[in-house]
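Good day; I would like, with your permission, to put a structural problem before you. What I wish to show you is a protein chain and, alongside it, a tokenised description of its three-dimensional fold. I would ask you to consider whether the tokens describe a fold that such a sequence might reasonably adopt. You will find the record immediately after this paragraph:
***
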Amino acid sequence: MPKYYCDYCDTFLTHDSPSVRKTHCTGRKHKDNVKFYYQKWMEEQAQHLIDATTAAFKAGKIASNPFAQPPPAMMNFAQPPPGMNFAQPPPQMAASFPPPGMNFPPPIRPGFN
């Protein structure tokens, strides 16, 4: 029977059976190795992005501070648009809400009635 090789742990298991794989994959050392593998992969991806950004900045493709000036058209969020009243829901939604002080009925769970 062929042996099973675990890429994360860099080791061979005694034999290839579902119970041996399951026991191995639920072990602490295997879980630590998987966590370390993906953590290292994420760090490499982040470093790649940093290197690409640095190269683009040095090539002059990125402004020195892209956030220095505000965007050309800022919306005024202090006032709602004309005709909008946030104190009450729109008429089409008003029917779906219970009156103030009343709660929604409990959800119906199949098999528990």
Observations:
- The radius of gyration is 29 Å.
- The chain has a mean pLDDT of 79.
- The chain is about 40% helix and 5% strand.
